[in-house]
Specification:
Structural class: mainly alpha
Order of helices and strands: HHHHHH
Shape: elongated
Largest sheet: none
Number of domains: 2
Helix content: 55-70%
Number of strands: 0
Length: about 160
């Protein structure tokens, strides 16, 4: 019990010093934020939401923390983000096992999830058959040998 009281006191102290003015949102921004968290709960379920934000205060703080970023998006864009989230979950992307607001917003802004090696599909095997413009395997091998010869000539 005392630990809970200490944590609550610390949370109140943190929220009092986070900003000098509370963030204010217009009705459409509030709608976007509420819709985002409703879709988040529908996607991950109550148990995972409660494991991430165990009480109403922590959920309220999360809404405040991410509110400015979420409010930039319309309902249609938020729907698109959660459609992409379902695709990522189906492809067993570990980043989407639990509610991760940053990862979901990254799907909309093309930052985070699709950058780096994840965006280049480096986890998949190279298939030269997909290079249709170069024809058969023998033709591709001949082109490769010619290109290597050109590189060797550059260093002579």
């Amino acid at each position: 019990m005392q630990i809970n009281k200490m944590l609550k006191a610390n949370m109140q102290a943190l929220t009092a010093t986070t900003t000098s003015q509370p963030a204010s949102f217009d009705d459409s921004e509030k709608d976007s934020i509420a819709y985002f968290f409703m879709r988040l709960q529908n996607t991950y379920g109550v148990a995972r939401m409660q494991s991430q934000w165990p009480d109403a205060d922590s959920l309220r703080l999360a809404r405040r923390e991410y509110g400015k970023r979420i409010a930039k998006f319309s309902r249609e864009e938020i729907n698109k983000a959660f459609d992409l989230t379902h695709v990522e979950k189906e492809s067993q992307n570990k980043r989407f096992e639990f509610p991760d607001v940053d990862a979901i917003l990254g799907l909309l802004t093309n930052s985070g999830v699709f950058t780096g090696s994840g965006g280049t599909l480096s986890h998949r095997l190279y298939k030269p058959e997909e290079l249709l413009q170069y024809g058969t395997k023998e033709e591709r091998k001949e082109i490769a040998l010619n290109e290597l010869a050109k590189l060797k000539d550059m260093f002579k």
